[in-house]
Amino acid sequence: MKLSVVIVNYNVKYYLQQCLESLQRALKGVEAEVFVVDNHSHDGSVAYLRSRFPDVHFIASAHNLGFACGNNIAIRQSKGEYVLLLNPDTVVGEEVIHSSIDFMDSHLTAGGHGVQMLTHLGERALESRRGLPSPVVSFYKMIGLCKHFPQSNRFAHYYMGSLSWDVPGKIEVISGAYCFLRKSALDKIGLLDEDFFMYGEDVDLSYRLLKGGFENWYLPVRILHYKGESTQKSSFRYVHVFYDAMFIFFRKHYRGMNALWRLPIKTAIYMKAMGALIGTTLLATRKKLGFCNSDAASIPHYIFAISEEAVQHCQQLATNNALKAEFRTPGKYDLENLHTALIQQYGGKNKTYCIVYDTDLFSFQDILNVFSLQPIQNIHIGFYYRKENRVITMTEVIGD
To answer: Which fold has domain 296-399?
Structure first.
C-alpha cells in the first residue's frame, strides 16, 4: 500500500463530500486507502456519505475526540508507506497526490511536506509555509513586525516570508490541513500528541520530525483550503482552544527557557487571547442588536461557467434559491480566457461575485490554477456538482 489518507470530520458533510470527490480524481493510479474519522457529528455525515463512497473506511466515534486523537485512530490502522492528514474543508487538485509521492520517493530524508494552500479568493495562504513559533519568532508576530516586514528572513520567519512560493523549499512547520508524512518517520517519533484537542498538534509534530533528524518541505502544488469551515472562529470555544494550544506547546518545548523571555511571551499570549475574546463579544453584541445585517454589496452575484447540458438545471437552482445569476457556456479548453475576461469585467467593483465552475467540465487543478493567477478581493471561487445539482462556496451550500 503506497498511501493512507486520513480525514477527521465534524459536521461538514457537504464540504467533506466535495473533498472526497476531488480526492477520488487525485488518487487515480495510486494504491491507496482512505479513512474518515467522524468526531460525533450531528449532521448525519456518516449515513449520508457511506453509501456514496463505499471504498472509504468510515469510523464513527461516539464522542468528539479532537483532531489529534481522531487522526491517531486511523493512523494506527493504516497500511500505507505514506500517510496524508487532510482537512475535510479542502479541494485537492488532480496532480497533487502524484507530485507528493514523487517528491517523497526522491527525498528520502524528508519526514513530511505541505503544499501551496489557496483561499477562496485564490490567494496563497500564509500558513502554507511556517517557521517554529519560538519565543522570539512568536514575539515578532504578536507585535506586528511579521506583518509589516512580510519578506524579512528575521521578522517574517513565522510565515517563512523570505522563501520563494514557486519552488520546493525546506520549512519548519507543516500545516495539518495537508500534512503528507512518511510512515516510518511516525514510527520513530510517535503519533500526534493528544494533549492538543485542536490546533497546535501540527506544530508539535513538525518540531518532533525536525528533532528526529528529518526534513520538512513545502511543495508549490495547489489545493483549496476554506480554512476552518467547521470551526466557529467568532466563538469563545475557538478562542479558548486556540490559545490553550499555544500554552501547551510553549510549556512542552520551552519550559526551561530564561524567565526574562517567558514573562513577555506569556503576557503577549494573554493579551492576544483577551483581545480576541473582547472582539468576539463585541461582534456577538452587534449581531444581537442588528448592526451586522448583510447589505446588497455583500450578497453574491453568481456567474455559472457550465456546460450547455447543465444550464437548465442551474437556472432552476438559481430560481429556487433566489440567486442573482448569469450563465456562461464556455468550451472545454477556454477556462483561462474565460476567467481572465470575467476578472476584467467584474474585478474591483463594489460588489461580491462568485464564479461557479462546472466540475464535470473542468478539472479541479485547472480551476485552482486560474484562480491563483490574479486573486481579486470581490471575486470568490465556487464549484457546481451536476449530479447533486449543488453549488458549494466558502460561505454557502446551495442545492435543491
So the answer is: Rossmann fold (3.40.50)
SS3 at position 202: helix
pLDDT tens sequence across 257-296: 555 555 665 666 566 666 666 766 676 666 566 665 555 6
Q: What is the pTM of this model?
A: 0.86
In the chain, residues under CATH classification 3.90.550.10 are 3-133+150-225
Q: Are 286 and 309 in contact (CB under 8 A)?
A: no
All CATH 3.40.50 domain ranges of the chain, comma separated, are 296-399
Q: What is the mean pLDDT of residues 208-216?
A: 97
Residue 54 C-beta-side C-alpha neighbours within 13 Å: 1
pLDDT tens digits, one per residue of 99-158: 999 999 999 999 999 999 999 999 999 999 999 887 778 778 878 899 999 999 999 999
Q: Select 3-133+150-225's CATH number: 3.90.550.10, 3.90.76.10, 3.40.50.300, 3.30.420.100.
A: 3.90.550.10
> Which amino acid would we find at residue 298?
S
